[in-house]
Write a sequence for this structure.
């Protein structure tokens, strides 16, 4: 076997460039495609079939204010260690459809194409997965940030899932729908509060509010996970002898916040509480060896958590499987 050395790699490159200099055939080069395949991914928990539906990605400008309790050079180093650019954070969005056999349940609803030019493909990916929005029976919401609720309605206010019951955490509803709380927010935060009223205002009577530790759909249990927002909720999904956790926004991009669970992101309402919740859930996933799904994990947004230090973890993404 030829040993792969820098020298013979360079020799190969020289041959390639000499070949490139030869007259080209008349065959035209294939045009570049410039698009990806439809982004949905299926897996099973017991008898349940789960489909991860990707909505796209947001490249968020970040600076020294993004992590409130770590020096900016430490954040930049973490990004460089993860081979990310240091001024922009990739924030993917992935929802989860759970077919329990009795119900088709959607957990969070993506951006509705209303947040970033690089996101908004939920609808086309759902269609590619063979799911009609009319088939969704139940929608579970983890929290009220726009990337989780905007998909309930189009920008013009039309309902996207006409046959679905919408269930939200009672604590989240109480926090966001309180006009007194809205009045106390800084001006920059007001659009998110007005957005909650835009999405839920005229359907308020039909929205069901649930408490923690309730079976909110067959085999799906709500778990309070406060900090990111006061009512932020994660979901345990169990079927047969298998279970998993849908972690919502317990962590943002795992390359930063699973690796550094003590960091307080500026997007967490209560950074210290979010960190406590995060560590408790990551520890539980580690001890129980549970599969987890994270709304802002790289697609297909599921994997296992491993412990890498006393206060650090890492995500081991699932290996793509060609069949269920
Ligand atoms: Zn989010």
């Amino acid at each position: 076997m030829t040993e792969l050395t820098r020298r013979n790699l360079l020799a190969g490159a020289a041959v390639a460039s000499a070949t490139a200099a030869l007259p080209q055939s008349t065959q035209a080069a294939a045009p570049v495609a410039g698009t990806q395949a439809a982004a949905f991914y299926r897996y099973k928990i017991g008898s349940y079939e789960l489909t991860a539906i990707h909505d796209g990605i947001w490249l968020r400008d970040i600076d020294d204010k993004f992590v409130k309790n770590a020096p900016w050079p430490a954040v930049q180093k973490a990004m460089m260690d993860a081979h990310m650019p240091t001024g922009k954070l990739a924030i993917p969005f992935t929802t989860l459809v759970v077919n329990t056999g009795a119900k088709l349940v959607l957990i969070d609803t993506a951006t509705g194409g209303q947040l970033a030019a690089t996101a908004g493909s939920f609808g086309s990916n759902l269609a590619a997965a063979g799911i009609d929005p009319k088939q969704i029976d139940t929608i579970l919401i983890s929290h009220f940030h726009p990337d989780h609720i905007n998909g309930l309605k189009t920008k013009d206010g039309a309902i996207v899932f006409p046959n679905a019951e919408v269930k939200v955490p009672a604590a989240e509803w109480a926090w966001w729908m309180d006009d007194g709380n809205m009045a106390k927010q800084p001006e920059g935060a007001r659009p998110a509060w007005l957005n909650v009223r835009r999405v839920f205002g005229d359907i308020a009577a039909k929205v069901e509010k649930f408490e923690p530790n309730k079976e909110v759909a067959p085999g799906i249990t709500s778990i309070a996970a406060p900090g990111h927002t006061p009512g932020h909720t994660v979901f345990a999904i169990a079927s047969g002898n298998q279970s998993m956790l849908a972690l919502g926004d317990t962590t943002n991009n795992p390359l930063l916040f699973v690796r550094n669970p003590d960091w307080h992101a500026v997007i967490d309402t209560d950074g210290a509480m979010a960190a406590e919740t995060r560590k408790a859930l990551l520890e539980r996933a580690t001890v129980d060896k549970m599969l987890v799904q994270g709304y802002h994990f790289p697609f297909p947004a599921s994997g296992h958590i491993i412990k890498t230090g006393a206060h650090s973890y890492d995500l081991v993404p699932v290996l793509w499987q060609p069949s269920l």
The CA atoms of residues 81 and 128 lie 35 Å apart.
